[in-house]
Amino acid sequence: MNTAKRLAIFERLRAANPSPQTELEYGSTFQLLIAVMLSAQATDKSVNLATRRFFPEHGTPERLLALGEEGLSQYIRTIGLYKTKAKNVIATCRILLEQHGGEVPADRDALEALPGVGRKTANVVLNTAFRQVAMAVDTHIFRVSNRTGIAPGKTVRQVEDKLLKVVPREFLLDAHHWLILHGRYICVARKPKCPQCGIADLCEYKDKTPATA
Fold first, then answer.
1. Do the beta carbons of residue 134 and residue 119 sit within 8 Å?
2. How do residues 60-69 score in pLDDT, each as one tens digit?
3. Which has the closest alpha carbon to 145: 154, 119, 24, 185?
4. Calpha distance 125→120 (Å, rounded)
5. Of 14, 15, 44, 167, which residue is most buried, by most CB within 10 angstroms?
6. Catalytic residue chosen out of the listed positions 85, 120, 162, 174
7. Distances from the Cα of 14 to the Cαs of 79, 105, 120, 131, in angstroms?
């Protein structure tokens, strides 16, 4: 895909959604971090249903740590891998309080040193909370990048690096949100909604879903 096509794609995505936001619900950077940690192999909807139950009373590192693994587990049992996630969240709260004054660090290495925080989670926090240029490639973004031809790659890291290289600079801060929402609602896995897609004429996917009569 050439530069002109990529520019046109992101111009259209921005026009359709000028201020894209994550669909995870949070009231602080700490709550965003916890929500993203819980969202691994889970839907944003399922995470929101769970966090609505404990964020109001336990939405700080101190209060969540006091709740403990067992207490947190009761709130997140509906989320996949909840036992491991509860363990990592509580351990993360302890480290934030002991090493970072209870604040979420705006540094990749410090974020990735937290239990249960990998590169993708760190990228989401850096981009969404701290407005740093970062590309959190999940299954949706990986699919859209390859299917459309925007940034093809065989691995998540290849796609991440390619997106950072080829997305026009003025769109880099919000590109992650546009791509994930596009993949979640339009460029879906099994049968992409090509007739409803605002960038279908720019997309290089050969097997587009035909419009029904």
1. no
2. 999 999 999 9
3. 154
4. 9
5. 167
6. 120
7. 32, 29, 23, 17
